[in-house]
Amino acid sequence: MTRVSTGSNYSVMTSNLMRAQLRQNVLGEQVASQKIANDLKGYAKNAEVLTAMRSAQAKINGLIDQTKLVSNRLDMQETGVNQMADAVGSAKGAIENAIAAGNAATLMQQLEAAFTNTVQGLNTKSNGR
Q1: Rounded to an integer, what distance in angstroms lies between the CA atom of residue 90 and that of residue 111?
Q2: So where are the chain's domains?
Q3: For residue 111, how many other CB atoms are within 10 A of its CB?
Q4: Using CA of residue 33, residue 36, residue 37, residue 40, what is the dihedral sign?
């Protein structure tokens, strides 16, 4: 059985308390000043983390820009699809009216207008594409 010296225990505990107190003082100064260090040497141990964070931020900004472009393109496609749906609805209505009236005198003009709107919907462009 090993014997533990009381004096050395007190010494270890005192040095740990002093180290904790110094660390508390340093952290208190950082909180009060809202700075980690006054020069670049103080940031050296966190430089890799800062560099990685900036790289991640650049990637995220790039993804956000791409998402905005895709969103704009999808909005334009939605506009084109809605235009085509309206044209198909008007063509259907024109056919139904011609059948109900028993007269198809203006049916071809109405179908041509609906077809033109459908073509415009299919040819919708986003940023020249």
Answers
A1: 8
A2: 8-38
A3: 17
A4: negative
Its pTM stands at 0.55
CA atoms within 13 A on the CB side of 110: 16
Tell me if 79 sits within 8 A of 123, measured CB to CB. Answer: no
pLDDT in tens, 59-104: 999 999 999 999 999 999 999 999 999 999 999 999 999 999 888 8
Residues 6 or more apart whose Cβ sits within 8 Å of residue 76: 124, 125, 126
Degrees, nearest 5: CA angle 22-24-25: 65
Residue 48 to residue 103: CA distance in whole angstroms: 79
Tell the residue number behind the tokens 């415009």, with chain if given. 120
Neighbours of 43 (CB within 10 A): 13
